[in-house]
Every structure is written in C-alpha cells, then in structure tokens.
Amino acid sequence: xxxxxxxxxxxxxxxxxxxxxxxxxxxxxxxxxxxxxxxxxxxxxxxxxxxxxxxxxxxxxxxxxxxxxxxxxxxxxxxxxxxxxxxxxxxxxxxxxxxxxxxxxxxxxxxxxxxxxxxxxxxxxxxxxxxxxxxxxxxxxxxxxxxxxxxxxxxxxxxxxxxxxxxxxxxxxxxxxxxxxxxxxxxxxxxxxxxxxxxxxxxxxxxxxxxxxxxxxxxxxxxxxxxxxxxxxxxxxxxxxxxxxxxxxxxxxxxxxxxxxxxxxxxxxxxxxxxxxxxxxxxxxxxxxxxxxxxxxxxxxxxxxxxxxxxxxxxxxxxxxxxxxxxxxxxxxxxxxxxxxxxxxxxxxxxxxx
Length: 354
Fold this sequence. Notes:
Its EC number is 2.1.1.63. This protein has 15 helices and ten strands. It is α/β, with parallel strands linked by helices.
C-alpha cells in the first residue's frame, strides 16, 4: 500500500503537539492567513476549522498558500534552521577542530537549542557529528595505508589511547584489528542522507549502514567475528558497484538495485529480509502484513525484530515498513532518513504511473 496519512483530526493533534514524525511530509494550510506551515512550526496554532492538510509543499502552493517565514516549509529543516545551517557550514570549514559548547556560544547560539535541533533532524548532536567527522579522517588515512600515528593525528587526537578508545566506541573495533590483505574490506563514503559504512568481499555486500547508527559497532563486531578477523580497509568491486548504484538511486536514476548480498541472519530473519526486497518501490507495508506474507500471521513482533536487525540499509528496504496506523515506526538510521527515503521512492512510483 502507498503511505496513508492519518485523518485530519489526528494531524491537527500532531500540529498542536508539534510532532516531528510528520516534519517535511505533511503540511498545514491556514485559511485565515493563506499561509502554509510545517506541523512543527513555532507559530501560534490556528483553529481546527481553518486547517487543510497537504502531503507536499507543492500542493499547498498550487492551492494559493504562501510559505511560512518562520518554519520555511519549502526547505528541509537543515536548510531552514539558521543554527543548523551555520554550524554545518562551520564544521565544513573546520572539520579537524575539537568543537565544544563554548564554540557554539561564541557563534551566538544556545547549546541546548542546538542540541535539540540536531537531535531532531539528524539523530545526533552537533558535537557528536563533529567527533564522527574527525574519526572519519582517521578511517580515510588507514584505508589509504597510512600509519596509525598519522590516523590519530588526522582525527585530531594528541593521545593514542584516547584515539583508540574513540575509534573502538564508534566502530566497535580497534584500528589495529584491521588487516591490509583481508578479503572483507570496509569503506566509508558520503550520500545525500549522510555518511555510510559498507563492508564487502569481491562479489557480495555484507553490511551497509549509516555511520551514526547506534547498532553499527555491534554489527561490525559480529561480522568481524564471523570473518575470523579477516577485515581490512579499502575497496572491492562489490563496494564500487554498491556506491555507483546508490549514487544513481539518490539521483533519481535507479529504482531497483542489482547487488549480490551476503545475509548473516537466522533462517527466519533472512526470510524476512528477502520479503522486504519484494515490497514494490514507492509502497509501504506493516509488520503484521509482512508476517502474513511469510505465512506466520502471529509473528508480527518477530518480524519487527528482524526488520530492526537488518544490516544492509536501503538495499534491503526496511524503511518501507511503517506502523499499522500509517505512521512512521522506528528506523535505526533515524526517522528523518526514513521519511526522505519514502518520499524519494514515492517520486519513482509517481513517475512510473505518469
């Protein structure tokens, strides 16, 4: 089924609650002002009878509504929020800087407000984002065959022990655990939805996750154990194909993936993951419906656990599973990414039906 919006009464309650689950995917037009907003808009809430809800900003514009100047509904929150925009730009200019709260204050911003805005939009705080950016520098250095001390300095750590601790906390492994001639290679690359970590051998993709997913260290640790420590930094033909197809997907040029996948779950989990790949692009389903599809109608909770255990994001489209009430359910990469993926795939669907 295509994503179904809740009824208008539920959406009005979400507007009153400034529910971030609908940010960017539902908009409200106010008849008394002819202005349309995000449901998270900080402006005074309109009366119920003055509200009309739209699935896209373009629909509101077509009906003659003007974009609100407070919540900037025609941009993503990252673009519309001045604090987010200025800090992301500052991070791009100074990626190696050890950012602290006092730096945020020097920029005239309130740390607590910034913390909430980044958590809502990206699932992590700005300071966590800055730390991950520094660690990425070390990952790139090691991938290129650089020495450990160079990776440590590139990450901005003066202490070797602090670098190893930070690296292990984020990756789940120590830098020294990786070996140069291993058949499994780990790579780290950018996408429009953030940095992703991928692991593959010459022919099969084993893991694809957003770098800030909390389960990433555990997943890498299990994969490392399964591979008996044979994991290194670098790339493989399978990784290059993965990156190329993802680039085409985000550019709007590829709706389907053609990749060989190595599944590391139980028989039941692998069955759920294969069923996920059969959900048509631009459509969504529920855990209950998925359980029925695999012939186990009472296993909705087990299906949900298998869905959450997916370690090949996007390619195995667990983002296409939503709550039975039509609302977004949990997603390890963050609900904002789930929303963006569903929106992108809806465009593919509309283009196919046009």
